[in-house]
Structures are given as C-alpha cells and as structure tokens.
Amino acid sequence: MNKDFNKFNSMHMDILKELGNIGAGNAITALSKMLNRKIDMKVPKAKIVEIKEVNEILGDPEKQVVGILLKMSGDINGDILFILEYKSAHLLINMLMGNSCELENEFTDIEMSALKEVGNILISSYLTALSKLTNLNILPSIPDIAIDMAGAVISYPAIQFGKMGDSVLYIETEFSEGAEKVIGDFLLIPDIKSFDLLLKTLGVQTYGENN
Amino acid sequence: MEKIIKVGMADLNIAAYPDKLTTLALGSCVGVNFYDRVKKNIGMAHIMLPTCSSTMKKTNIAKYADTAIIKLFNSMIEMGSLKRNIVAKIAGGAQMFAFSSNNELMNIGKRNIIAVKQNLKQLKIPIVADDTGGNYARTIVLFSENGDLQIKTIGHGIKII
Question: The domain A5-201: what is its CATH number?
C-alpha cells in the first residue's frame, strides 16, 4: 500500500470535484427541502494536503464546530464528515425545531440528537447520489457526533490516512443559507484504494496502480 | 523577544529559553513534552499513531510514538541537555467520536497513550504530569521558563500541569 497521491493529475482532480458536486448537490437539495429555504453551494474543492497541515483545512484549528461523521464501507471505504460552525448548527436547529435558542448556548440532548439525524440524512443523500452515479455499493455506518475544535474533529479521518502516507486527499463542498448565516461543509475522505476504484468506475485510469 | 513556535500534526520541534512551543487542537493525537530542568530547553512532538512497524511508509518519523520520542530525545541531547535533567509531560489521546469505543483497535487515542508511556519508560524518562483521555480536544503550550504545560479546552476549562 505504498501509494501516494502524486499520480493524480488535474483531470483526476476535476472528476473528484464533480463527484463532490453531485453528492453535495443532492444533500443540499435535501436540506433545502427540509428547511424550505434556498441554499447556495460553492464550487467543490479536491485537495491534497500534507498531514502536518490537516488540522488547518477548515481554517482556525481551535474554532468550535459540530462534526457528524459516518464511516463508509462496501466498495468504498473511508469517512465522510458533515461540519457546521457552532453558531450555524444552532441556527439550523432553530429553523428546524422552531426554537429561538441563544447561539452560544450548549446543545440539549434533543438538539444533539436532531443534529445527528440531520447529518445522517444529508450524508446519506450524498452517498446515494455517489452510489447511483458509480454503481458502487456504499454502506454508511450509524452517525456519530463531536462538538469540539475543528482541528481535532478533522484529525480523526486524517489518522486513518496517516497509516498509509503523509498526505490526505479530500473533497470539500461548502454551502451557505441566506446571508451566509448557516455555513457548513461536506468532507469526503475515502482511502486511496477507493479513489482508484471511483475513478476507474467512471472510466478513468490512474497510473501506478498495483491491483 | 520570546517566540511561540508552532508544532503541526505529526511534527516535532525543540526550543530554548525564553521561547514557547505549542500545538493546536490535539484530538486522539498525543502531545509529548520534554523539559530540561537545568538548561530550560524544551521539546514537543505531536504524535499521531502508536508504532511505525505497522505501516509501510516510514518517511515521517515524527508521526509515530516509537520513532518520534527517540528523535525528540536525541534532539534535546544535541542541544546540550543531560538525560538526568529531562522530564516529560503528556497530554491528549482523547476519543473524539464515540463509536470507536466499541472496538479497542479503533480507539487510537488510548493506543497512542499506551505507546507513548511505554516508549518513555524504555528511555527511562519520568512522566511528571499527565492529562490524557476523555472525549475533548486540547491545545497545549509548553513554557521553557518553568516547564509549565498549559492546556486549553472548549468546555473543560484551562489548566496548567
């Protein structure tokens, strides 16, 4: 498994971005329906970063975020993370539950559970879109939630990568609602074998393949 | 002027008085801190995984507990520190997502802590302070002035060990 991401060229990266576009597009449509609001999505990014800098992917590593993580298994292995800024998560919950809770408050158990479920629904729609497009079997795990510093939340999937190499390839899609009030991110982080498979299914060869 | 030197993920660094070392948002990673009580030299490693042997790539030795601790120790000695003056403080090794608890192998935080302690024991460097485990992130700052290790968290306060 001595592989790295150097073999990926700009065409590969463009295809990965498109995967992010399709997956997150589906998820954001679901969110938009759930909230009955218009949500804007930014152009996805596919990036390779050194492990050293991983905890800065989302900006300030100490920024408090809500992270909902699902593990993928089946044909594709890896993690998928749905990240909301702390205040955004409160806004989202207020919109969903008709609350008017202060944005600095701690989350109650019911709110935590609701966030987890929103994450679950959105990530599942993301993966459904990917699965349909590629005809691959992608099984999501049950969701789990962490509310803490961005750097520590993002380091969880990064560690899985750390076992194999010194860099991480991830596909990021940012979205926002209204006047940038609810800001969130989807991070798709498959392992390197899954990247090869994803690209292969879409008819693109990656060089230096061992399998 | 004193500087604050940042240590990234899977990275290590050393510094001399009056500089400080810091690493941000330790999750399941473990921060290993060395302090030379006489010369006030300090060293910090942000360790990601327990051992190097379980992996194929060995390019970044700062990533693993076994290789990083030895490298950090040697760097301290090169700076002129004597082994008998070096003490260690460790922090981190949290479990950010609960579902890893079902599986011991998945609980990287715990495995990192065990590996760090084992390696320090082998080197015969005493651990004088320890703030590990839990389910929350930590930002740490190591002061060369007195070897204090400041630990900042969200919702679990700030403390010095």
Answer: 3.40.1550.10
